[in-house]
Design goal:
Layout lengths: L1 H15 L2 H18 L8 H28 L3 H6 L6 H31 L5 H14 L1 H13 L2 H18 L11 H7 L3 H14 L6 H30 L1
Length: 243
């Protein structure tokens, strides 16, 4: 665990000194919230807060895992790290801890904007439940980011991450009310992992309806699929570069 913490500290310091990553990651979700949050102003600030907090985590998982791993795995530094007595699990744990730092900050910014500008409020226990749903619900997207990192070449990782990120965020109703999605598009939206995540977060944040167990099960299924893709991508990269 000590090695993972050291790796996380190094990773966080490197990213913090890279404004092209740190500033958009921390500020983009809150800016989008200010631009599109008016769609939720009619009695739904808590749901809006949950949706944009989810988008903040999606940003971190896609770009810190997907683009970050794809860029780093071909560098001499990453090659050197693999010669050290630290397992792949330790290195990944360090990356996860670093991502949690950025995730906590960017979700905190979204929470401040949602509370100060749109009047979102909830009891402390519901906020804690929402934080847990956000943390657990982002697991499949973190695994998808890792899969991108190991399957995609560095130059393709950023554009492909953007191409996947936007449909997931918009189609999953993170930026808008679900009833604002046209019927035909809503059928497709229901199949997206982000829509399942949003339905769970909506239930936790508002308490208007019971926890949708079928959407929770869908997230578990997506986690299994993306874990397999990430593991196969890692094994492929190991086989091509280190055997």
């Amino acid at each position: 665990m000590r090695l993972a913490v050291v790796h996380a500290r190094t990773e966080t310091a490197q990213l913090a000194r890279y404004p092209a990553y740190a500033v958009p990651t921390l500020a983009f979700p809150a800016i989008v919230m200010l631009l599109f949050g008016s769609r939720f102003e009619h009695g739904e600030p808590e749901r809006m807060l949950a949706g944009f907090a989810a988008m903040a985590l999606l940003t971190v998982t896609f770009f810190q895992f997907g683009v970050g791993i794809a860029t780093a795995r071909t560098t001499p530094w990453e090659t050197y790290l693999r010669t050290l007595p630290a397992s792949a699990t330790t290195r990944l744990a360090g990356r996860v801890l670093s991502a949690l730092v950025f995730a906590a900050i960017t979700v905190g910014v979204v929470a401040v904007v949602g509370t100060a500008v749109y009047g979102a409020s909830m009891p402390a226990w519901r906020f804690a439940a929402l934080a847990l749903a956000l943390l657990v619900g982002c697991v499949p997207f973190a695994l998808l980011g890792v899969a991108f990192g190991y399957w995609l070449p560095p130059r393709a990782a950023l554009p492909i991450a953007n191409l996947v990120f936007l449909p997931l965020a918009i189609g999953g109703a993170l930026w808008a009310r679900p009833d604002g999605i046209p019927h035909g598009a809503d059928v497709a939206s229901q199949t997206l992992p982000t829509r399942s995540w949003m339905e769970v977060l909506d239930s936790v944040a508002t308490g208007d309806h019971p926890l949708p167990l079928h959407h929770a099960a869908a997230l578990a299924g997506w986690s299994a699929v993306f874990f397999a893709a990430a593991w196969l991508g890692y094994r492929r990269d190991e086989g091509e570069r280190f055997t």
